[in-house]
Amino acid sequence: MLSKEITAKVRGYISEETVSETVDQFFRHGNTFLLLELMSLRMEVKSLREELQSQRERKRQSSFRALVVP
Description:
70 residues, mainly alpha, 87% helix, elongated
């Protein structure tokens, strides 16, 4: 039942099979599953922050070049 509700909410983003597997893993492994998911999300957030910082630096550099070289 939980799997069907989640599938309805994320339709088009995640397949029904992936949702079912994830829900099954959660029920089997509980806290361990949540810990691993949290660690995975933290790594993804770190990666996105680094990418954003890199984009900001490139934008600053290109802005500076535009000021220096008319």
